[in-house]
Design goal:
By secondary structure, this protein is mainly alpha-helical. The chain has one domain: Ferritin, core subunit, four-helix bundle (Ferritin). The strands form two sheets. A two-stranded antiparallel sheet has the order 1-2. A hairpin with a 5-residue loop joins strand 1 and strand 2.
């Protein structure tokens, strides 16, 4: 099965594939999570909205998997490099999605909080990748960003609606943002081979810089709706605990991705410290991942050769 560690070629080939799988796996997994609201959303309009957003996200995953399949084949290992094998044929530890996107939907407020944080981060990275020296990646961002604008409008509208709504709605939104914020930082976990990607202009800015751009946007939005407390409470990572992983085993916290913390300096919120441990970009997942992995890949694994 094609994966970052098994693709032949240079270390740059592997780094390029790591970037594409991170992008694609994020979209695929959050698309599946969004689709779970179909038929059970609080309003019929949201049944349609989240179904549409889910379909978009999975379609965006196909874009990145297509480039990844070409990249894997071109690096000298065509076996297992098909679009379907990349999207559906890898073991759990082969997926490179951030832990945030695999979390269960919980309630409506958490879902909206996650969608807002994720789509804001996705817009930041797509804007950066539009300037990539890798033309296939730069060219792909145009159409994706046009669709992502709708997702951002949807997320902002609901954040405003809940923040300005009844006290209970505002409280639940704040709690959802706090619950999601720490793991949202993991969207900017450095990739394997990131230094090479940046040096080649494939990734125009390191994830540390993209994290700050995202944090500036989120801080401005949360300040506008009076929910800056999220920035203080949401980035506090648990330390010294044992954490359940997707294998069902318990791992020491230093193995699991943690940090950085977020603090205010003057009029700007900034990340302090570096990421420690490893997260989704290195195939480390939460206890919520096996169920969604089974759901996504079960048909393909049961029927080899099945196509999307």
């Amino acid at each position: 099965m094609t994966d970052v560690q098994t693709v032949a070629g240079t270390s740059l080939d592997q780094a390029k594939l790591a970037l594409l799988l991170a992008l694609a796996d994020d979209e695929l997994v959050i698309g599946h999570r969004h689709s779970h609201w179909t038929g059970v959303a609080p309003q019929i309009e949201e049944d349609l909205a989240f179904s549409s957003i889910a379909q978009d996200e999975i379609g965006h995953a196909v874009v990145w998997y297509t480039i990844a399949a070409d990249t894997a084949s071109g690096s000298g290992r065509a076996e297992g490099a098909s679009l379907d094998a990349l999207g559906l044929g890898r073991p759990m530890e082969g997926y490179r999605n951030a832990i945030l996107v695999e979390r269960e939907n919980r309630d409506w407020a958490f879902t909206i909080a996650r969608q807002y944080l994720y789509d804001t981060a996705d817009d930041v990275r797509l804007e950066a990748l539009a300037g990539s020296s890798w033309l296939a990646v730069a060219d792909a961002t145009g159409a994706l960003r046009r669709e992502e604008r709708y997702h951002l409008l949807h997320a902002h509208a609901w954040v405003d609606r809940l923040a300005d709504g009844p006290v209970e709605a505002r409280r639940k939104l704040g709690d959802g943002l706090v619950a999601a914020f720490g793991e949202a930082l993991g969207l900017f976990e450095p990739l394997p081979g990131e230094e090479e990607l940046v040096a080649e202009g494939i990734l125009p800015a390191p994830h540390a810089e993209l994290l700050q751009r995202w944090l500036d946007l989120v801080a401005a939005d949360l300040s506008r709706v009076g929910l800056e407390r999220v920035l203080e409470e949401g980035a506090v990572a648990g330390e010294g605990e044992m954490v359940a992983t997707s294998s069902g085993e318990m791992a020491p916290a230093e193995v699991i991705l943690a940090g950085p913390h977020v603090t205010r300096r003057g009029d700007q919120w900034v990340p302090v410290g570096e990421f420690r441990g490893r997260g989704g970009r290195h195939g480390i997942h939460s206890e919520d991942f096996p169920a969604v992995w089974e759901e996504m890949t079960g048909t393909y694994r049961a029927h080899p050769g099945a196509r999307w």
